[in-house]
C-alpha cells in the first residue's frame, strides 16, 4: 500500500519541477496550465533521459532521473524569466482550483490503483509485452533498449511511453511488477 503514495509523490515532484513552464506555455487557460504540469513534468525529464542515454552520456538509474528532474526544476524555477512569479500569482488567484485538481487526481489515482489491485495479473492482451518492455528499459544500460524477445537486437517499436513509466519507476523505487499497474492507474 506504500506504493501508491510513493508513485503519487514521484509524479508530484516531476510536476512541480515543470510547473513554471506549464504556467507560461498555457497561460491562456483558466487554470493557467496547472492541469498540464504533471504530463509535462513526466515528459521533459523522460525525454532528456532518452536523448542522453542514446548518446551514452547518462546511465539508466535513479540518480540520472533525479538529476534530470532537478535540471528541469532549475531551468523552470530559476532560469525561466518570471517563472516563480507566475506560479505565485497562479496560487494566489486559483488556490481553490489547484486544491480541487490535486484532490481529484489523488482520488482518481487511488481508485484506479485499487481497481488494478483486484486484477493485477499481467496477462491477456498486451500486458505481458508491456511488462517485458518496461523491464527491458529499466535494465538496459543504454538506449535503444534490448528487445526482450529478440536477443541481440534493440526494441524496434514505439517505446517512449515505457521510458516515462520507467522514469517514474526509478524515481519512486517501486518494483516494476507494481509500477506497471500503477502506470495504468496514472
Q: What gyration radius follows from the Cα positions, in whole Å?
A: 17 Å
Specify the biggest β-sheet.
none
- State mean pLDDT (0 to 100 scale): 90
- Binned strand content: under 5%
Beta strand count:
0
Order of helices and strands: HHHHHHH
Name the shape in a single word. Answer: globular
Computed structural class: mainly alpha
Descriptive terms for the model:
186 residues, mainly alpha, 70% helix
Which helices and strands appear, and what pairs or packs with what?
Elements: H1 3-25, H2 37-54, H3 62-79, H4 83-118, H5 127-139, H6 160-172, H7 176-185
How would you describe this structure to a colleague?
This protein has 186 residues and is an all-alpha fold. The protein has 7 helices and no strands. The two termini are 15 Å apart.
Short overview:
The protein is mainly α.
